[in-house]
Amino acid sequence: MGFAIVGRQFLVESFGFEMPTIAKPQNVSCNFMKTTVQINEFIKNYKIKNILLDNFEKLLKNNSEKQLDIIDKDIAINSKKIEYKKTENNFHSFQNSILRNDTEIGYYTLVFDNDVNLVDEYFVIFN
Questions:
Q1: Full domain range(s) for residue 91
Q2: What are the residues whose beta carbons fall under 8 Å from the beta carbon of 119, sequence distance 6 or more?
Q3: 58: left (phi over 0), alpha (psi -120 to 50) or beta
Q4: What's this model's pTM, rounded to 2 decimal places?
Q5: What CA dihedral angle connects 87, 89, 94 and 100, to 10 degrees?
Q6: Total domains, the chain
Q7: Residue 127, SS3?
């Protein structure tokens, strides 16, 4: 199965693709996140769910179907299930499934550094 991975830097440089930015919470660090409880508290306290939803909505608004490699914009992310993982670079990845008619067609991910700066953003559609 093929898929398209679209990262922030590639899209900006290659296509002028607009990626939304987020406001950084003050004096925050993610270094402590080790347990599910800590991760869920972080998601709640720093409104990661809202950031994912807002950035996804802005991404759809600011870009065409062709730029996003989708048929239409009748898609959504599953905000009830946020998957967390620590990356190889010790960054923090928060990922949602992209859904069309309750079927997963890809995923949307935000990656933050330990100071909660948005490092990268991925919009991936399976082909």
A1: 3-126
A2: 91, 111, 112, 113
A3: alpha
A4: 0.75
A5: -70
A6: 1
A7: coil
